[in-house]
Amino acid sequence: MPEGLSPGEVGKEIAEHRRHAAARNGHDRHDRWLSIVEALLLSLVAVLAAYSGYAAAKWGTESSVTLAKASAERTKANRADTEAIVTRTLDSASFNAWFTASTAGNANDERLAEKRMRPGYRLAFNAWMATDPAHNPNAPPGPAYMPQYVIPQDAAAKAHDARADAAFAKGTKAGQTADKYIRATVFLATVLFLVGISGHFRIRQARMGLIAAGGLLLAFAVIQLLGLPGPPA
Description:
Layout: H1 7-104, H2 107-115, H3 119-129, H4 152-198, H5 204-226
Helix pairs in contact: 1-2, 1-4, 1-5, 4-5
């Protein structure tokens, strides 16, 4: 007949069982906390990644639209500059016609040449004639050198160029902001990867190390996002 356990051995077995149960409960509790931390990190990173991707898309669109406006303004500036060159050439031709008639002493041709002058150029011409250029050695060389000589297309070209420069600078900055949001999204995607695979490791230290690395990258990405402007309206 087999011998049974003594009361002392029974007490020792019960104590050993309690120790194992407590260790198992502590391990399970630790794993539960790690799972909660992982779930919180994944939820936060998912929201931030969605926001960062949305902001990157908005700033990318803003950059494209603004750069398109800059290109349109530059085209208008080139067109106005070409029109200004044509106007200046016509003014010069009008003056040459008047000067030829004046040199030939043909008063009718002079009056006809003056009548054909562009209204804006005639204003400068009259101001130049008031300086008595035939007898005044200090008179300007011609009407084009008078302050009254204004070509509207010149002013329009400069205005379009200024708007094009401003739009190009704004579009470039918007593109850089979109790139920064994309970079933050890449960091957040890395966090998702690290935290996502951490649950597959049974070694607690490896799991905690992946979570810690993901947390550091998440903190870095959040700092980057806080320094960026919000999505454009």
